[in-house]
Amino acid sequence: MKIKVIMTDKAMRRETMNAREEMLGAVLSPDTVVSVDCIKKGPDELDCHTDEAFAAAELVKESIKAEKTGFDAIVIYCFSDVGIDAIRENVRIPVIGPGETSLAAASMLCNRFTVLTSESRNISRTYRRLMKNGIAREKMASVRALDIPIGELRSNPGVTEKHVKEICKKAVEEDCSDGIILGCLSMAGYGKQLESELPVKVIDPAFVAVAYAEMCVRTNLVHITASYPVFENNSHVEM
Question: For tag attachment on the chain, is the N or C end more exposed, with fewer CB atoms within 10 Å?
């Protein structure tokens, strides 16, 4: 089985993507291969709705290529699930969004959960998007920010780990949260340490998404044309 993971920003270095492949592969079966790539055009980082809009078109194009080259599933490597509905209109393989998948996991395991984002300016955007989801409306206690730029999240894991722990401690004490969703995939990998120090279930969307993608392929759990009609490009957009 082959899973294509597509990052939503074009500024990723190959060594970073290689490290992501190794990290994500650790939760998959030995016969499953994960391939990580980023979009070729669009934003360097995903910080706002405008960035999402420009990234979405490129994600559609990369997803079409992935299906044509034999991949069995696609994971959008962003908690915002950028372009997920459009991608599902253009491919017939499972398309997994870490955001919606993690919320489903939180609905089963948590009574109240907090979503972490990178910077305070993202709180409003994250909150507004999540309020469209019934699970979040019922169980989300807060959205909290680390206030560390995404670039530093990737480059300084020691600083990131310290900030993540401090914010999670506040979520437990002030929001009475028993669950944490790492709402930026640059935070991937911090869950085990947090769970050993705080009374929370940490949901790591990066791992949840790829593992769910593998399960979807094995069980033929994929969207259908009744829900996502095939895009026929009658509007003549550039593909």
Answer: C
